[in-house]
TrEMBL record:
<dbReference type="GO" id="GO:0003677">
    <property type="term" value="F:DNA binding"/>
</dbReference>
<feature type="domain" description="HTH cro/C1-type">
    <location>
        <begin position="14"/>
        <end position="67"/>
    </location>
</feature>
<dbReference type="InterPro" id="IPR010982">
    <property type="entry name" value="Lambda_DNA-bd_dom_sf"/>
</dbReference>
<dbReference type="Pfam" id="PF01381">
    <property type="entry name" value="HTH_3"/>
</dbReference>
<dbReference type="InterPro" id="IPR001251">
    <property type="entry name" value="CRAL-TRIO_dom"/>
</dbReference>
<feature type="domain" description="CRAL-TRIO">
    <location>
        <begin position="1"/>
        <end position="167"/>
    </location>
</feature>
<dbReference type="InterPro" id="IPR001387">
    <property type="entry name" value="Cro/C1-type_HTH"/>
</dbReference>
<protein>
    <submittedName>
        <fullName>Helix-turn-helix transcriptional regulator</fullName>
    </submittedName>
</protein>
């Protein structure tokens, strides 16, 4: 069973890194000198011999150990990273997340409507690979929407840590991809941010089954992370990528690992932050008084 699970995971990683490289199965097959059907077999959990897999890893710009899931997975593509998150969430029992300013899984559908524009704005006009980056936004949005649909259908329990300081900044600057972008109506984007903050307040007061939100007043880690827990396994993903204001889907290297030490350390940190966080009506009152009312007064 462990071997079957391992080969399935190799197939999932192969799919994620292929997508991050912007290749179709047909294109990867042609480059690797195998048939399209072979790529589909590999991605379905029937990986090739190690020498063939090594050649594919080279074509995708990743190491063989990363593709095999030996040790730490290093992921330099936002598309690959969020596809790996989607895969891990397919059979997870519990998610612990700290992705600022708000966990994507808990955002509204209106957030999805604006996110492609925000991602576009976040890519400077003078970047050499801008056309390719713009093309990747469509693939990324498909992955993200599937993640949210899966989360809503499966309803795994989620513990979301929210930084009060990041919420305040989100409300102040608005849901924007860059400072002073010429095409942005700032008042509209500030309202969009406010709507998401009000949605968090609503969840804090209503406390939907399986959803726990803690508002942290203390200092928070600089990197975003998410812990995936199943009955038989736990993994932690640490990300430089950001989907909120001043989004980043181009620069950085994410990591994914099942190493017991990493899971324990991140788990211990989230436990400490959770215990100190504001919850329920107390957290909702705090946000309304210190974030939302401040925006109205401004």
């Amino acid at each position: 069973m462990d071997l079957m699970s391992s080969t399935a995971d190799v197939g999932r990683r192969l799919r994620a890194f292929r997508m991050g490289a912007g290749l179709t199965p047909e294109e990867l097959a042609a480059k690797a000198g195998v048939s399209r059907a072979a790529i589909y077999r590999y991605e379905s959990g029937k990986p090739p011999k190690v020498d063939t897999l090594g050649k594919i890893a080279d074509l995708l710009g990743v190491s063989l150990p990363t593709l095999l899931g030996v040790g730490i997975e290093y992921v330099a593509s936002a598309v690959s990273f969020f596809e790996r998150m989607r895969q891990l969430e397919e059979d997870v029992d519990q998610i612990t997340v700290m992705f600022g300013p708000i966990s994507y899984l808990l955002t509204t559908d209106r957030y999805d409507d604006l996110l492609p524009k925000v991602l576009d704005e976040s890519i400077p006009e003078d970047v050499g690979d801008r056309k390719n980056a713009i093309r990747e936004i469509g693939a990324l949005m498909d992955i993200l929407k599937t993640r949210k649909e899966t989360f809503r259908r499966r309803t795994p329990s989620i513990v979301s840590l929210v930084s009060a300081a990041e919420l305040d900044e989100f409300g102040r600057v608005g849901f924007v991809g860059a400072h002073n972008h010429p095409s942005v109506n700032l008042a509209e984007r500030q309202k969009a941010a406010r709507d998401e903050i009000e949605n968090i307040v609503h969840m804090l007061r209503e406390q939907p089954i399986g959803v726990q939100i803690g508002v942290v007043i203390d200092s928070m880690p600089g990197a975003s992370f998410q812990i995936f827990k199943r009955a038989d396994k736990a993994q932690v993903a640490v990300s430089p990528f950001r989907l909120g204001s001043f989004a980043n889907i181009r620069v950085g290297v994410a990591t994914i690992t099942a190493a017991a030490e990493a899971v324990q350390l991140y788990g211990g940190m989230t436990d400490r932050l959770w215990r100190k966080s504001l919850k329920g009506d107390q957290a909702a009152d705090f946000i309304e008084k210190t974030v939302l009312k401040k925006r109205v007064a401004a």
